[in-house]
Fold this sequence. Notes:
Layout: H1 7-12, E1 13-18, E2 22-27, E3 34-39, H2 52-72, E4 77-81, E5 92-97, H3 119-134
Antiparallel strand pairs: 1-2, 2-3, 3-5, 4-5
Helix pairs in contact: 2-3
Amino acid sequence: MSFVLDPRLEADTRPVCDLTLSTVRLMNDARFPWLILVPMQPNLVELTELDPDQRHLLTEEIDGVSRVLGSIMSADKMNVAALGNMVRQLHVHVIARHDGDHAWPGPVWGVGTVEPYDDRAADALIGTLRNHLTGA
């Protein structure tokens, strides 16, 4: 069986790049600089389903993505979470937070109304992220 991205993640995000283990996606909400890493392994629900080497690699990818997003966005705080209550497919949220953002200091989930990126802004951010994450 091959990897298939959950349709809800597909609908709510834009592709950024693929890393060794994970595909990186930009959440389509311009209020929050928010990336999602999805390990490209079929039928994963829990972190514990990854073997030890994959868990280590995922941790390294989260670290790299967090550092890049935090630096690009001049974040005051980075939030990292793997909830999976609404979308069961294993995925990790990496969110750059700023003092005074729309949800500060609470979590970003369920706050206000989503403000989708316009295509030009999304393409520019994705290009910058891709360049920093892959060197391409």
